[in-house]
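Note to self: keep these together.
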Amino acid sequence: MTQAKAYAATSATSGLKATTIERREPGAGDVEIAIEFCGLCHSDVHTVRSEWRPATYPLVPGHEIVGTVTRIGGAVVGFAVGDTVGVGCLVDSCRECDSCLEGFEQYCENGNVGTYGVADRRNGGGLTQGGYSSSIVVDENYVLEVPAGLDPAGAAPLLCAGITTYSPLRYLEVQDGDAVGVIGLGGLGHVAVKIAKAMGATVTVFTTSPAKADAAFALGADSVVVSSDAAAMADARHTLNAILDTVAAVHDLNPYLRTLARDGALIQLGLPPEQMPPVNPGTLIRKRLAYGGSMIGGIAETQEMLHFCAEHGIVADIEMVAASELDEAYERMVAGDVKYRFVLDASTL
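Structure:
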């Protein structure tokens, strides 16, 4: 075992405090990574504070990791010491079910292994601990190449926000000339705008805040609709082929569904804490619409996304924070006071 510096929560109300954790020695197929940057995801807040389900403590969050390979196991063939690599939301899966064999490890039918806060089935049964730490050891099959040319700090949030938005756009086969709507302009939404534009789509941003219009246009949006403006929503009816809903608060989907053209689809990405208002099936039936959901992406698709972003110069818009500022950053995330993702500078641990 080796020691790693980290910031961990010890209860739902403790905040994040400096500590040390143990990392396993690299096995034959493992990659040891010196962490340089780790994005802060809103799901980190929910998990640390036991808002989705009771967490097990102590807990080191963080699943948007970028760093440098420091050691590799004897059987590793895909990485070398000195490589810039990433680790996203998954560090293992069963590798045997249909989903895993088809490259959809995020939907592992026997339960994937998240980067933090879950039982590490292959390594003694302890909890996985995440990227708010100085190092991590991960099976090479769940390590990603960070292409040269991508700013490593700005690339970190792509390992969650990037793949979460890229995967449904690929699933829907969005291409040049399609019209895509993005509900919400936060950590997910701002990356969704960039990726959809790079795919050739015309992008409409839906927001509840007129003040976000300039920011949406600066990111590349072609139009902005204030969702509380009934006339603007009426003008947008039947104009879009696909919508990504990135909002994690309770809201009514029916007005957005009416902006879809025939055979359009709305994909839910944000996970509200409570039940949403019901979708009117008549709205779906009259235009042969689809309403679905999507969760991150598999390892191969995440690697594909990183290369796509490198080709098109896409990274997240970030604000760097020191370890001592993590609790403040959490409060600012809850208040929506960030454009658009916080990233931890691991050198401050």
